């Protein structure tokens, strides 16, 4: 007998009989709060930087004022072509090792933990938000939702090869519980909250 | 590890407690993490409902494990993921090795996976000439020091920054005496970036595998799992079969609970959902049993398979905090480790269910409501019945039972005990007496309660009669 058949048979013999129904999830996530304010507060608490903007022009201005434009900046957003490269999405992912700033757009953001949902169709490359030194993500204010339950309602049966929630910059506290931003991924995260 | 003689928990804890200042620091550091958990949990009005919901989902998983696993495999295969099954640690290691061999890989980068610790994968691969680098900062530190992780979430929690500085100075050439965590982390970042960029194979653990969609989720704060997986040609994800959950929407429950319970964060920085490999690349999932199906068949202990590895039970445990993760001589330490380990090897791990005060704090913080302290208590019964406890303990218990069951013997024992402690204290206050290890013996009373009662009840009776 193969290991698979053997394991499955053992499990069948061992698993408890009786009914254990799946619980109702609809009763969860009715927390009441101002989603924009909550989103900003939580993001700041975990080391991210919320920036409210009216449109892409304000994003461009912010980036020009706060990042070294002579370094490699990449994006998936044509609106940012003045300051960012757009022609990298089919390159070898290793070639992104010298990227200073990646700017992408999220499907939506979750207020309770400031997580942003991104999938490979809007990432350009899966490694793009990780390999970059700094990360900026744009999300529409109308796409902020309260909790993870609404998040998975919204994801539903969305098709993707890869998707991730990103909440704040990469971090570690593995040395004596001292928080250090920029463990392996981005050292900083700006979230542009767009009207 | 298996060939070494195991130092029992109590002995290892005694050694750990020699450095009082350090033990106090260890204790306080973990309690600080526990407090962060509380603060975070109290901000969620639904917290207790979330725990109950998570528990019910996991109960459903245990009762339907066979079907969910079959679904998961079929759906993962539809997504282009290659699925393997390993009955035990040996087969798991062989499968990983065969994948690496096929791709002619001699160096692999790994993110945190307690399962590979359980299977001793690194040692196995090292013997086959394959170098594995652990990329989680805490695991990287302990790997350089040739130590196992001492905590499932905080692998280097037993070390101070001075220790890390010393280790990095030796292995990475960092400045001697520079203890700054920022500086040390930056040094590791630079070193490991090169590792990520040059490895063709990456291994990760799995936090949740979803039967309905055939995808799996890996949670990290550092981004190391993603750096490895998205740059490699081959991604190997290893999971115990209990990592399954039925549907994608159940992640909403577990991702709300996991990081809050672990470190007090609202969520880990990255919660990555792997569903399909990149074009031309491979994702392998290795589903491991290694004793789990046996545990599933033990009605008293099967609930331990609900564990989502948050570590909350360790952070709150007064014994763990003052004995350190290494004293548990098992990949998973602390209260949950102590109910998982005897299933893996009863005689080797017979000491662990006794490494608890049964205070129940672990059960109270567990996000999936595992009855941890009850299981610790139940394991004790099993271990004694099956003869895995030291005979000195059994004899002592039997003697005590005889004494307590017989009033005459009890009386006599009390009298002689008082006599000995008063007149020849050395007979009791010596190294043979374990009770005396960390305690002074109490002052000897003049009489026993029984004697006192007899006298006083007679006096009060006489008074009433007057």
From TrEMBL, chain A:
It holds the Pfam family LUD_dom. SUPFAM superfamilies: NagB/RpiA/CoA transferase-like. Residues 97-193 form the LUD domain. InterPro entries: FTHF_cligase-like_sf (IPR024185), LUD_dom (IPR003741), NagB/RpiA_transferase-like (IPR037171). This is Lactate utilization protein B/C. It comes from Flavobacterium frigidimaris.
UniProtKB/TrEMBL annotation, chain B:
Pfam families: Fer4_8, LUD_dom, LutB_C. Coiled coil: none annotated. The keyword Magnesium does not apply. SUPFAM superfamilies: alpha-helical ferredoxin, NagB/RpiA/CoA transferase-like. Keywords: 4Fe-4S, Electron transport, Iron, Iron-sulfur, Metal-binding, Repeat, Transport. Residues 441-466 are annotated as: Disordered. Gene3D superfamilies: Alpha-helical ferredoxin, NagB/RpiA/CoA transferase-like. Residues 297-327 form the 4Fe-4S ferredoxin-type domain. This is 4Fe-4S ferredoxin. It comes from Flavobacterium frigidimaris.
């Amino acid at each position: 007998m193969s290991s698979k058949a053997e394991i499955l048979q053992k499990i069948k013999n061992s698993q408890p009989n009786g009914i254990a129904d799946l619980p109702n999830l609809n009763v969860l996530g009715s927390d009441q709060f101002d989603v924009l304010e909550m989103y900003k507060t939580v993001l700041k608490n975990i080391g991210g930087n919320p920036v409210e903007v009216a449109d892409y022009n304000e994003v461009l201005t912010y980036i020009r004022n706060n990042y070294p434009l002579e370094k490699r900046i990449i994006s998936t957003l044509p609106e940012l072509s003045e300051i960012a490269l757009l022609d990298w999405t089919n390159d070898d992912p290793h070639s992104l090792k010298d990227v200073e700033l990646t700017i992408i757009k999220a499907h939506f953001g979750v207020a309770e933990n400031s997580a942003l949902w991104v999938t490979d169709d809007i990432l350009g490359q899966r490694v793009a938000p990780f390999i970059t030194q700094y990360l900026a993500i744009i999300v529409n204010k109308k796409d902020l939702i309260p909790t993870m339950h609404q998040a998975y309602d919204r994801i539903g049966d969305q098709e993707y090869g890869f998707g991730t929630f990103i909440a704040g910059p990469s971090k570690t506290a593995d040395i004596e519980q001292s928080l250090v931003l920029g463990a392996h991924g981005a050292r900083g995260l700006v979230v542009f909250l767009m009207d | 590890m298996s060939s070494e003689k195991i130092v029992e928990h109590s002995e290892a804890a005694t050694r750990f407690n020699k450095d009082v200042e350090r033990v106090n620091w260890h204790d306080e550091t973990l309690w600080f993490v526990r407090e962060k958990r509380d603060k975070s949990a109290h901000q969620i009005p639904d917290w207790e409902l979330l725990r109950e919901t998570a528990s019910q989902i996991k109960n459903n998983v245990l009762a339907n494990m066979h079907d969910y696993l079959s679904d998961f495999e079929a759906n993962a295969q539809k997504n282009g993921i290659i699925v393997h099954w390993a009955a035990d640690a040996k087969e798991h290691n062989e499968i990983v090795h065969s994948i690496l061999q096929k791709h002619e890989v001699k160096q692999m980068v790994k993110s945190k996976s307690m399962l590979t610790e359980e299977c001793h994968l690194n040692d196995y691969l090292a013997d086959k000439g394959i170098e594995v680098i652990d990329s989680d900062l805490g695991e990287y530190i302990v790997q350089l020091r040739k130590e196992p992780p001492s905590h499932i979430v905080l692998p280097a929690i037993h070390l101070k920054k001075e220790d890390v500085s010393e280790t990095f100075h030796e292995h990475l050439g960092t400045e001697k005496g520079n203890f700054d965590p920022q500086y040390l982390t930056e040094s590791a970042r630079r070193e490991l970036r090169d590792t990520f960029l040059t490895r063709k194979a990456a291994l990760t653990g799995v936090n949740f595998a979803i039967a309905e969609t055939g995808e799996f989720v890996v949670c990290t704060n550092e981004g190391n799992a993603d750096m490895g997986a998205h740059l490699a040609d081959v991604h190997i994800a290893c999971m115990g079969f209990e990592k399954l959950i039925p549907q994608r929407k159940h992640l909403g429950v577990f991702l709300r609970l996991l990081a809050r319970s672990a470190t007090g964060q609202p969520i880990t920085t990255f919660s990555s959902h792997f569903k399909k490999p990149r074009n031309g690349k491979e994702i392998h999932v290795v589903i491991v049993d290694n004793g789990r199906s046996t545990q599933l068949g033990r009605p008293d202990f099967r609930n331990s398979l609900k564990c989502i590895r948050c570590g909350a039970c360790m952070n709150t445990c007064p014994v763990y905090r003052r004995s350190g993760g290494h004293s548990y001589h098992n990949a998973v330490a602390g209260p949950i480790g102590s109910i998982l380990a005897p299933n893996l090897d009863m005689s080797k791990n017979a000491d662990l269910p006794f490494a608890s005060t049964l205070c129940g704090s672990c059960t109270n913080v567990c996000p999936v409501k595992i009855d941890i302290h009850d299981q610790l208590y139940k394991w004790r019964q099993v271990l004694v019945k099956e003869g895995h406890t030291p005979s000195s303990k059994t004899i002592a218990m039997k003697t005590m039972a005889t004494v307590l069951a017989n009033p005459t013997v009890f009386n006599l024992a009390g009298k002689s005990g008082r006599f000995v402690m008063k007149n020849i204290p050395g007979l009791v206050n010596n190294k043979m007496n374990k009770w005396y290890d960390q305690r002074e013996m109490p002052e000897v009373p003049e009489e026993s309660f029984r004697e006192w009662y007899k006298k006083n009840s007679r006096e009060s009776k006489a008074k009433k009669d007057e």
